[in-house]
Write a structure and sequence with these properties.
Layout lengths: L5 E5 H17 L3 E5 L7 H10 L3 E4 L2 H9 L6 E3 L8 H7 L2 E4 L2 H14 L3 E6 L12 H14 L3 E7 L12 H18 L5 E3 L6 H5 L9 E4 L1 H5 L3 H6 L12 E14 L22 E7 L3 H4 L5 E3 L5 E5 L4 E4 L12 E6 L1 H9 L4 E5 L8
Parallel strand pairs: 1-16, 2-3, 2-9, 3-4, 4-5, 5-6, 6-7, 7-8
Antiparallel strand pairs: 1-10, 10-11, 10-15, 11-14, 12-15, 13-14
The chain binds pyridoxal-5'-phosphate (PLP).
């Protein structure tokens, strides 16, 4: 009892996606950093990535990387949110790689690394117009790179990277990738050697790869979403990528029905605001059969991130702890105690895997690490 709501992790589907993505990248000479933040850093997901051939395990959260390490992940760990000054000493213990965009942080990192007697690799981020993290001016990027190269003994300049399509919705076009390589080569001219890594972005940077437009020197992508969530809507619908042939069933939500009744579809009485202070529009569709589920926005966030698998069912609303499903058009008879299933979009997976109210049910997971 008390098994629901539950998120099921289908590790076989996950590994199938990871293998596909890693083989796409390998064909173009690109190594994959497996990003685990969408699944709140589950070590079993990191293990899938390790098994499928990722070269790094990456996350934006130190807690998740720490857990991966404690649970026995052997791959080098990479911190992909530019680190806080306050977490540098912890980062040195846990991670071998990090993305960086501040001179002050790099200086503090070198100091800490000297104290800890620990080497650490950095990838300097170039902001190519998406306007989140990264050096905005090439000149500053080159100056800082040269400083790291000439003056630091423990912090090693491993490469240059960028991130696109997160804040500014900027697409990772061929031109942007070529600009990244040009930046890397400007750094190489200044330091007098080749960089090991040119990190071309996240899932969205698979687009130039599909188009065979990825410059040869880009040799790392940091991939999370497409392996975990499946065919990404942004790749598929916005950019019409039919070739995004991966499974969308790695994570599913199962929730239990706690009430089934036929009710009016329009609220009755003088309307104010809902549980979240909003004034939704309610459509009057007459009397409709509906099921109430014991799961809510406290668990998954937004109803748009749930895709009901029950044919004919529609999610019509949710409050913190309840979700309302219109089941008038369902062929199946739904009754109290039934369990209904949903496929999930990115942020629902992120929230459900971090909610203490949601049980995690792992299917076909690999063994060999502490979990
Ligand atoms: C989240 C993140 C990624 C992975 O993005 P996906 O879209 O999940 O593939 C890569 N790089 C950075 C810096 C990130 O924050």
């Amino acid at each position: 009892m008390g098994k629901y709501p539950q998120i099921t992790v289908n590790h076989e589907a996950l590994r199938s996606n990871m293998k596909q993505v890693i083989s796409w990248c390998r064909d173009e000479g690109i190594d994959v950093a497996g990003v685990i933040k969408a699944s709140t850093g589950m070590a079993s997901v990191a293990l899938d990535y390790e098994y499928c051939g990722a070269k790094w395990i990456a996350s934006s959260r130190m807690e998740q990387l720490q857990r991966a390490k404690a649970d026995g992940i052997k791959l080098p760990l990479m911190m992909i949110r530019v680190p806080m000054l306050s977490e540098l000493s912890e980062m040195l213990e846990i991670c071998d790689y990090s993305l960086q965009s501040e001179f002050a942080t790099l200086k503090a990192l070198e100091e800490e690394a000297v104290k800890a007697d620990k080497k650490h690799n950095v990838i300097l981020m170039a902001d190519l117009g998406d306007l989140r993290e990264g050096f905005f001016e090439l000149e500053e990027l080159v100056d800082v790179a040269k400083y790291v190269e000439d003056r630091f003994d423990f912090v090693h300049l491993a490469g240059i990277g960028t991130n696109l399509g997160c804040y500014g919705s900027v697409m990772p076009t061929k031109e942007k990738m070529e600009q990244l390589v040009a930046y890397a080569e400007a750094v190489e001219d200044a330091i007098g050697r080749k960089l090991e890594i040119i990190s071309g972005g996240a899932t969205s940077s698979l687009m130039p790869l599909f188009d065979k437009e990825m410059p040869e020197r880009v040799n790392m992508l940091r991939i999370g979403a497409i392996s975990l969530v499946g065919p990404q809507e942004d790749l598929r619908t916005s950019y019409g990528r039919k070739e995004v042939d991966v499974l969308d069933e790695a994570f599913t939500l199962e929730a239990e029905v706690i009430e089934v009744k036929t009710k009016a579809s329009h609220p009755i009485g003088k309307l104010g605001v809902d549980a979240f202070g909003q004034k939704p529009n309610y459509k009057d569709r007459g009397m409709r059969r509906r099921a109430l589920l014991a799961v809510g926005r406290a668990d998954f966030g937004d109803i748009d991130d749930l895709v009901p698998q029950l044919v004919g069912a529609e999610v019509i609303g949710a409050s913190g702890d309840h979700t309302i499903l219109d089941i008038e058009d369902c062929k199946d008879v739904i009754k109290v105690g039934d369990v209904v299933q949903f496929k999930l979009k990115y942020s629902a997976i992120m929230r459900l895997t971090s909610s203490e109210n949601v049980k995690i049910n792992e299917v076909d997971r690999l063994y060999g690490i502490k979990l």
